[in-house]
Amino acid sequence: MNAPAQDRPVVTRFAPSPTGFLHIGGARTALFNWLYARGRGGRFLLRIEDTDRARSTPEATAAILSGLTWLGLDWDGEAISQFERADRHVEVAHQMLASGHAYKCFATQEEIEAFREAARAEGRSTLFQSPWRDADPASHPDAPYVVRLKAPRDGETVIEDAVQGRVVFRNDQLDDMVCLRSDGTPTYMLAVVVDDHDMGITHVIRGDDHLNNAARQTQVYQAMGWDVPVFAHIPLIHGEDGKKLSKRHGALGVEDYQRMGYPAPAIRNYLARLGWSHGDDEFFTDDQAKAWFDLGGIGKAPARLDLKKLDHLTALHFSRMDDAAVLHELEAFLAATGMPALTSTQREGVLKAMPQLKDKARGFGQILERAHFVLTERPIRPDQKAAKFLDDVSRGILRELTPHLQNASWERERLETIVNEQATARGIGLGKIAQPMRAALAGRTVSPSVFDMMIVLGREETLARLAEAAAGLDAQSE
């Protein structure tokens, strides 16, 4: 027998069913497993639980792999298909048959239902007790059968859960679960145990909706003489209204959050804080999360989504992220949302402007809006709000300003001095010049500082845009 799970190198796993997108709750489960393994020099494995052939699709599997990749949750080795391991699951069921820990049950569905109806009528437990549990094999008919686990009838099955604490199940409240169906295919409950054992999983970190399964799965471990892993059943995520997440809450899948414009580091940080805490720390890096994450920090109460907190964390992560990293994720956002890719010229301009674009931004949509001045081309077509700042008087101001900029040294401080001097000479506030300049350079009323835009655009492009606006070539607004 191997050493107890807690004494072996950590191996965790994420085991989603490929029946749809990667749910935000599943993403958090994957993150917790990833953090726990990576923070201890262990391994994080991926298993696709695709035994439900009617509902499992290659598209869903691809969506799960894509979601994990975008989140930055790398796994060790190849993803394992549970369905492809069916022969191994069957082998274990037959081993339990041979050792007397399982038995063939020939009861039909009609007989089982009749048993339950009689039990209900008599006020007894409807937990099915098979008459074949201790039958002499010589009495077995030549008929279809299922293989059931011969679970203990007396005593208790105890789960020492790392999150929920000590959870006790009375064995007389647990039935003999089916391990092999009558068509010879293994059940999910058996397959999970066999796969976790064969993969060397030491810690099973999953949603608390699996807590009841842990009791029956523990009985399979015990029947096979295998070490039981450390279980950690984490509470589910609820919506802001305190109810279980559903379609009414809107964004449910990881790809939804990507399309909403959130960067992966902020999502990782936010999901880590959903149900787990490290003191009062809200913002932290991946390295800090790996070092700090432990199962004892997970609460027992369901966590609630709070997009305002996610917005706040997003702004913090943008401020700490390298400009090139933000650009890389921005391009992934464009691809995910079906928007045109950046040209090489646009990439260069966006990267140059990134310090201003990402400042206090709460998503890539906001960054793109601020980047409009880089992404657009002459002639600049101002939107309706911006066009109001390009009346005849404002055009006259731009015409007088342009000659003063033509030979100026193209540095922010010098450009600010020139514009301020022109405002003073006219007896007007800086805004009376800045707004027409913003409309001319960006075609928007909201943009980075006009001086930041001038530096990014350069002398030639800036003067060309100002000249076209002054001449009225932008008169046709968007």
Structural description of this entry:
- It is a single chain.
- The chain has 19 helices and 12 strands.
- It is mostly helical and 478 residues long.
- The protein has a 3-stranded parallel β-sheet with strand order 1-2-3, covered by helices on one side. A 3-stranded antiparallel β-sheet has the order 4-5-8.
- α11 crosses α12, α12 packs across α13 and α16 packs across α19.
- The longest helix is centred in the last third of the chain and has 21 residues.
- The radius of gyration is 32 Å and the shape is elongated.
- The N and C termini lie far apart (74 Å).
Query: Main beta sheet, described?
Result: 3 strands, parallel
Q: What separation lies between the terminal Cα atoms?
A: 74 Å
Give Rg in angstroms.
32 Å
DSSP, total strands: 12
Q: What share of the residues lie within helices? A: 40-55%
Strand order of the largest sheet: 1-2-3
How many helices? The count is 19
Strand percent estimate: 5-15%
Mean pLDDT: 93
Shape estimate: elongated
Q: Based on helices, strands and strand pairing, what is the structural class?
A: mainly alpha
Pick out the low-confidence regions. Answer: none
What topology emerges from the helices and strands here?
Elements: E1 11-14, H1 24-38, E2 43-48, H2 58-71, E3 80-81, H3 86-99, E4 102-105, H4 109-122, E5 146-149, E6 156-161, E7 165-170, E8 178-180, H5 188-198, E9 203-207, H6 211-224, E10 230-234, E11 237-238, H7 254-259, H8 264-273, H9 286-292, E12 303-304, H10 307-320, H11 323-336, H12 344-358, H13 364-370, H14 372-375, H15 384-387, H16 392-406, H17 412-426, H18 431-442, H19 450-470
Helix pairs in contact: 1-9, 3-5, 5-6, 8-10, 11-12, 12-13, 12-19, 16-18, 16-19, 18-19
